[in-house]
Amino acid sequence: MRSQCFLKLSTWFDAPMFARFAIVGVTCALLNNALLIYFVMLGLMPIGAALATVPPSLMIGYALQAGFVFRERPTWAAFLRYCIAMLSNQPRPNLCVLSHPQATNLHRGAGHDGNAVTLESDSDPMGDRIRR
Known about the structure:
Helix content is 57%, strand content 3%. By secondary structure, it is mainly alpha-helical.
């Protein structure tokens, strides 16, 4: 005899909503990576590029979650809650970017005046010294 406490999977798992949620998650991840690459190609340092991707990712992600996944009308209060939840995830990836030795150095190949910039790595393992 089955227990009355047994919950059916269908009572708490909405497969179509989960599929929409997964689609939005993948879309937002791809968008975030594309923006990050774009901002680095424009010349921003990796940490600056990572921070520059936050506002467009938040706005587009919330619009997709509210409209496509949950099918609710967007509100400013819900957007604020979404931003707080999403920004709680930001320190970890940004700290990973900052912990990389080249994240804080000029490593794009040209200085602001157009001269080539290279990193000396023989005596300085962190690459802090730059020679022209």
